[in-house]
User: What shape does this take?
Amino acid sequence: MNQLTSIKQFSDIVADTGDIVSIGKFLPNDATTNPSLLLKVASEETAAPTLTSAIEKSNNNLEAAQDIFSVEIGCSILEIIPGRISTEVDARLSFDTDATVAKARKIIALYEDAGISSERILIKIAATWEGIKAAEILERENINCNLTLVFCLTQAIACADAKAYLISPFVGRILDWHVAQEPNTSFKGEEDPGVQSVKEIYEYYKNYDYPTIVMGASFRNTGQVVSLAGCDKLTVSPNLLEQLELSTDKVERNLAPSANVIAKPAPVSEIEFRSQLNENAMAHEKLGEGIRNFVADQVKLENIFKKMMHK
Assistant: This one.
């Protein structure tokens, strides 16, 4: 049995890509996209018909064209997978609760117009305070959310308090930060701070019986994926999925639900959230950087549409 098959015994595998071919090859249950992955898809020659279709359906409306494109890619993926697709809200709205909610509703409406039930969609939102509050509103409307760019327990607790359907704690980017701070330190196996962060969040959720799903994300190597076998879900890029498929090394379950459930603590307040996030240099820096990078790729995607519209 290869490692990928072994891990699937303990965790749901999610494809972290917008590439239809890769998704068809590895047959994950779910898939996730983001502005960077959509930009990669849009930059390929094969995407031209989908881009043109989005522009035509939008009546040359720049914002609407991008939403339609992301939904059409999502619909193509949903033809292959049995589960859910995560579609991300424009990262430029990360600090605007009302605008995030409005955009999420538009995305859901586009999927429903395409005949896709909202039950198969996760609206992906950055785990800022404003994003978490938007998810809280959307979850009350039965619009399930994937709160992304989670780098610390404080964010995770606020997401659970908001009754978010799922969170994406980022393993690799946490490791990147620590390696940059301590380049001579080895962070392998159990010493990997990204792996430790996800384990801490997972154990907290299970100890307090929070139903929010933990989906480890942003992996740099297969060792990180294997170390989190047992996490509810793991979203993995195609290159690492292929490596896992080629390896027959043993995989053991490293995360499991707690047998003893503890009464939930009081919800984290906005002041506590902002103060604790500010005190955590890594989480504060990586959250801001992640949003900036997604915004940059969203602008690049926007420029592709602008160029096509002005031909």
